[in-house]
Every structure is written in structure tokens, then in C-alpha cells.
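In pairs, describe these two lines:
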Amino acid sequence: MQHKHRYMNSFSRPISKIVMGFFFIGCISGIKAQKSAIDNAGDKIRDFNARQSFYRGDYKTALGTFKDLYNGTPSNAEYAFWVGECYLNMNDHSSAIQYFEKAKQINPNANSNLPLELGKAYRLTGELDKAIAEFEAYKKNVTNIKTLKESEVDHYLGQCNNAKQFLATPVNVKIENLGGDVNSEFDDKRPSITADGKKMIFTSRRPRDKDSHIDKEGDGKYFEDIYMSQWDTVKNAWGEADLVSGSINTEFHDAACSISPDGKQIFVYKNDALEARGGDIWVSRLSSSGRWGSPKT
């Protein structure tokens, strides 16, 4: 009996160890599954917050989050696409192409806008044939007429084809700086002139004064403002440019699209800082006092 008792004890120990082993493995698997679920939930929240930052125009914050998400899951084409979107809106077109191409390699169908946005990036770097190929691919995959119209893909295609024609038949054009009264060392762009040729508005990223704000969430440059210059008939030149008077300029980006032929309306592109959405065209009207009112949608 004593020998039998020793045999039974020696047999029961391995069984208990096996049972405990399975229990331990089950616990570890459960913990891993729970951690994975928590991580996935956390990534979805971060993805949502990053998109909200993007739609508010806070591309720098959105870029940081989307880059972290992509680096954590480099097989996720959607994250690569959004990194590219951030770079595109921050005017870093080469980096945008890099991440759009990564997304395309991982999954070309990750986002229906991928060929459209990649085409925009190639257009801005002057790679016109590649841009046209992407725009055509977008048109082939998107059949909804309203979506195609809103995307302005035909407009971009027209720009590329026109650019190719212009490059094929170059014209001798002389570009002159308007001098210190109008131009600055900063970005000056989008001039628009009234029908009588007496008023010119343009967008500039020059500082208003020593306390001018910098777009820390974007590209680190001064915020855009709208300036106006009047034609001096005596000097036969454009006069000193000043900030447009009134309430048209804010602490944030204010970019001029154009001025109406009669000089009484300025069309402005801006983001609504209180809403997580893209920009829109606003209109500022000249009052009887000669000041410009707050832009309205």
C-alpha cells in the first residue's frame, strides 16, 4: 500500500501542474486580448481627435497624432493617407507625396480621395503627367456626379493640361517686383484688381507689428492678412499697401480670393475657428463710411 500511495502522488503532481499551466496560459491570453481591445479603443479615440484637429485647421497637432498612429501600425494605409493630408495642407508637398504613395502601396482603396489628393500634390510639385494619371484614376473610381463636381477634379485636370501647353510654348515674360511699398520679404500672393484699375488687394504673411501672431499649429509663419494698395495717378505707380480697414482681418488666417469689379465686395477664404470643418468663401462689404465689414457666409 505504501508503494501504491507514492505512485499515486507522483502521478497527481504532473496533472495539477498541467492544469495550472493551462489556467496561466488562459489568463495571459485574456490579458493580452483585453489590452488589445483597450489599445484599439484608444487608437479610435486618438484617430477621432486627430481628424477634429485637422478639420479645425490645426494640422500640426493632427500630424503628430496621425504619425504616432501610423508608426504604431505601419500597415495601416488610412493613417498613412492622413499623414499625407496634413503635410499637403502644411504645403510640404514632397512629404505628402511620400506618405500618399505609402498608403497607395499598402492599400490603394484605403480612402476614395487618395488619388485626388496625390494628384494635387503632384500638381503642386510640377509632376503634371503623374498628377493627370491620379486625377483620371479618381474619376474612374468615383461615379457620383455630385461628388465629382464638388471635388473639382476637372478643374485640376484643366490646370495640368493648360500648364503642359504653356510649358510646350514658353512666352518671354518679365516679372517685376512692385517695390517696398507693396511687396515684402514675406509671402505676398493672390493679387486682385478692380475694373477701374485703382484698387489692388492681396494676401500677405508679413507681420502687422512686433506683436503679430505666428501660426504655431500650422507652418510656424505669420498668419495671413489682407492688404490693399491704391493706384497713384501722380506717381503712376501703386501706393503703399496697408491692412484693409474695418473688420475683415482677424487674429487668424484671412486670405483674399478676389475683389468685385466695382470694389465694394471682397471675397475671403477662411476657416471657422469654432467649428471642426473645412474652410469656406466669405464676403466682406464696403460700408458707406469706407470701412470693410466682418465677412459673412
